[in-house]
Amino acid sequence: MERDIKKASVNGIEMAYSIHGEGKPLVLLMGFGADGGVWELHVNEYQKHFKCIVIDNRGVGLTSQPKGPYTTALMADDVAGLMDHLGISKAKVAGISMGGAIAQELALRHPEKVERLLLVATWAKFNNYATVVYENLKKIRAQASLDVFMELLQLWIFAPPFYEKEGCLANLKEGQKGYAAQPSPQTQNGFEGQLDACMNHNAVDRLGQITVPTLIVVGDQDIFTPFEFSRLLHDKIPGSNLLVLPGTGHVCHWESIEIFNPKTAEFLKG
Known about the structure:
By secondary structure, the chain is an alpha/beta fold.
């Protein structure tokens, strides 16, 4: 996916984005530490049906990386501001991990802007265990080389079966090298700001206000944002649907892409 990066001044920052395809708008929100380019394998499918707005969130990529803390509410307002800048009154919205938390806030704070909601490997509120994991990630990233940090993160987000598939271990090692060699690495300020947003996100008592069609996707071996987090979202969001991808972890959208892409595209087209 070639990205023709553009920037817009919104909500006090310069926000980087790219647009792919034509049709009804689909806003794509990635998880912490990753820029919008990580949507590539999904945009290859989605752009056949939608005008995809691929965003670098506050704190990563070519978007401003001010010192935090950030909140998911603040980052949702970033997205709303970009939609206004682009003249998009309403869009389908997909968010992975932190992006899913931002998407929840967008639907709650700006309900008129959201037509459909796809929430992948995300949460309504952290428990103490998840909070300690994320605090530890702050410490490790501040001390480890980027390739070593990515190796650790991969162990958290990919399920064990993925490591046994032909060619996947080599691909993971290439990913470690690519993360270390990226031309615009995420700053520690951006990383810690995003993790603060993740840890402090709490939409539990407001989820009943989300009334748009919602699909929640999770891997049954996700140890990073466990299944019970998605079960809570499903229980609290009226009329939501839950898709569980067997044998996958936090990045179920990559590990089972042959199921994820068509299933989610079908939902988003509805």
